[in-house]
Write a structure and sequence with these properties.
Length: 213
């Protein structure tokens, strides 16, 4: 199994002081997870690539596009803003292969995500063309939801199919649910509320990590 990576989600951070917020987690993070919502694929709308440009950190930016049919130029905006990986949704794209190829052609990592009710079957044809798969463990769109256990068989099956692939889980991740997902084969853990919702962010990350020992 690939190494464990912790990815705090800044959806739950204070955006007006984003660089200070990131400073508090930087030392203990492998990725900074940036949620982009368009108000179409998911009801809420969030920050755009101009905001991502203002983020100053050495930690790789893991951009999660909850966006309907992202165009080449839209994706390019995030690459130019400093993304080191971009995740698209299978449900949001007519031909996800196009976006995946475009992302990789531009020299960064490409990932594909599925919502809790989307079967793993839908993305099997892309597995040789991605650097990571994001199995959503809540319905995309909001922080602070409850982890959906029924998504775990997909993680288990995917880990069997791809022993070396980064498998990311996102939504309702706490020390407890991180352990549940880890036992099924997940190795990249996105956490918003359980990190930025706490005063002691470093302590919160340590708690997640110690649950994985
Ligand atoms: C939800 C986002 C998540 C969100 C997770 O659509 O993709 O990244 O920030 O938040 P928590 O950890 O609070 O479930
Ligand atoms: Zn996310």
């Amino acid at each position: 199994m690939p190494r464990i990576k912790i990815a705090p989600s800044i959806l739950s951070a204070d955006k007006s002081r984003i660089n200070e917020e990131i400073k508090e987690v930087e030392k203990y993070s492998d990725l900074i997870h940036v949620d982009i919502m368009d108000g179409i694929f998911v009801p809420p709308a969030t920050v755009d690539s101009d905001f991502v440009k203002t983020i100053k950190t050495k930690v790789p930016l893991d951009v999660h596009l909850m966006v309907h049919e992202p165009s080449d130029s839209y994706i390019r905006g995030f690459i130019d803003a400093g993304a080191s990986s971009i995740t698209i949704h299978e449900e949001a794209c007519r031909n996800p292969m196009h976006q995946l190829e475009f992302i990789r052609k531009n020299g960064i990592k490409a990932a594909i995500s599925i919502k809790p009710k989307t079967p793993l079957e839908n993305i099997k044809k892309y597995l040789d063309f991605v650097d990571m798969v994001l199995i959503m463990t809540v319905e995309p769109g909001w922080a602070g939801q409850k982890f959906i256990d029924e998504t775990m068989p997909k993680v288990r099956e995917l880990r069997k199919l791809k022993p070396k692939l980064d498998i990311e889980v996102d939504g309702g991740i706490t020390p407890y649910t991180a352990r549940v997902a880890y036992d099924e084969g997940a190795n990249v853990f996105v956490a918003g509320t359980s990190i930025f919702g706490k005063k002691d962010r470093a302590g919160a990350i340590r708690e997640i990590l110690s649950s994985l020992k």
